[in-house]
Amino acid sequence: MALLKVIATDLQKEERGVWTTYPGTDLELLVARIGNPQWESMSRKLLRQVRKERRKGELSEREAKQLLAPAVARCILLDWKNLEDEGPDGNPVPIPYSEAKALELLRDPRFKDLYEFVFSFANDGQAYTVDLEDDSKGNS
Fold first, then answer.
1. 7: Cα within 13 Å, side-chain hemisphere
2. Residues 30/80, Cβ–Cβ less than 8 Å
3. Greatest C-alpha distance within the chain
4. How many CA within 13 A on the CB side of residue 102?
5. Which residues are bridge partners to 80 per DSSP?
6. pTM higher than the cut 0.85
């Protein structure tokens, strides 16, 4: 038997995101869940365009992801920590989060694995369940 709260989704986590670490790095990503209200609204509009293009037989999966990238940048990939690039002098330079920078990375084919990781994590319902430890602290 399982209590309902064990399988309950934390709706705030779905919208505000959950921090996760990109494998093999110190890069931390704040990722909201696919299906949150903001995502639903924006992606619905973009998916109409995707479906229209697919009917013409002209849209690949890669192109569909490119069309959805603005929704992922705005509604799913919400922040990051510890992202750096090499500066002109060869030293690391922090890259602050912005929606524009997130979109740039998501659209860059060199970072397709980042896109896949974010999208996959955003679909992982386990990451957005109610935290039972926090729940038990609140009840004591």
1. 4
2. yes
3. 60
4. 21
5. 29
6. no
* Burial zone of 24 (CB within 10 Å; 0-12 exposed, 13-18 middle, 19+ buried): exposed
14 - beta bridge partners? none
Tokens 């659209």 map to which residue?
Answer: 107
Sequence ranges of the domains in the chain: 21-127
Kindly report the CA angle at 39 between 37 and 41, in degrees rounded to 5? Answer: 70
pLDDT for 25-84, tens place per residue? 999 999 999 989 999 999 888 878 777 766 766 677 787 788 889 999 999 999 999 999
Alpha carbon of 95 to those of 34, 92, 98: distances in Å?
A: 25, 9, 9
Q: Is the pLDDT of residue 119 over 70?
A: yes
CA 88 to chain centre: 30
- Burial group, residue 96, by CB count within 10 angstroms (0-12, 13-18, 19+): exposed
**d(C-alpha 93, C-alpha 80), whole Å:** 14
